[in-house]
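dumping this here so i dont lose it
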């Protein structure tokens, strides 16, 4: 649903900016006079000396009691919608559920956050791993694990990756009844301050 909302919003924004920019360009360059065509009577930009919003447009509703509450309410609604859209972008991609293939007719649903927590705990329990962060993305039937591991100075990257693949990810794949569980693993080292030796 988020992809559809993004496409509709970007499409409407693009059309609005295209229309506004085209109108300003048409009036600013006085193209209707140079090319010999007439613009409709409601068209706001008729020549290079026109402004986007004239004095009458700016002051027409100032004395009305309902004007400022409506403006403030509309801006508040717009702000809430933009904040919702921003938060949806930040949460984008996180998998809420994983469909587990069961012998029943309907597949079971596994909480994506629970699977992430289990993967994090098992990865963090490995020797040489200081901290782990796991995020599931993709589709409910084909999840992808994005794993970040922070290694201690004695941690061996090759050994850690092998154990993660053969034990942690394999167990999660088998437990969830998935054919495959692709993963993107990133390793970082834990930064330690210099130790003073006397």
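and the seq i came up w/
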């Amino acid at each position: 649903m988020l992809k559809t909302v993004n496409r509709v919003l970007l499409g409407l924004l693009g059309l609005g900016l295209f229309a506004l920019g085209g109108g300003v360009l048409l009036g600013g360059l006085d193209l209707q006079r140079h090319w010999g065509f007439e613009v409709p009577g409601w068209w706001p930009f008729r020549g290079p000396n026109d402004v986007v919003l004239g004095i009458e447009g700016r002051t027409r509703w100032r004395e009305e009691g309902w004007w400022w509450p409506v403006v403030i309410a509309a801006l508040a609604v717009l702000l809430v919608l933009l904040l919702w859209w921003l938060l949806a972008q930040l949460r984008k991609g996180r998998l809420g559920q994983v469909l587990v293939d069961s012998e029943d007719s309907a597949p079971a649903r596994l909480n994506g956050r629970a699977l992430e927590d289990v993967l994090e705990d098992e990865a963090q329990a490995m020797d040489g791993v200081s901290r782990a962060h796991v995020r599931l993305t993709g589709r409910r039937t084909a999840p992808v694990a994005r794993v970040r591991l922070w290694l201690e100075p004695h941690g061996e990257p090759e050994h850690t990756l092998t154990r993660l693949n053969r034990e942690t990810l394999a167990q999660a794949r088998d437990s969830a009844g998935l054919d495959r569980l692709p993963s993107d693993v990133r390793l970082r080292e834990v930064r330690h301050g210099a130790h003073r030796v006397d």
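Strands lie at 97-100, 108-111, 129-138, 143-151, 183-189.
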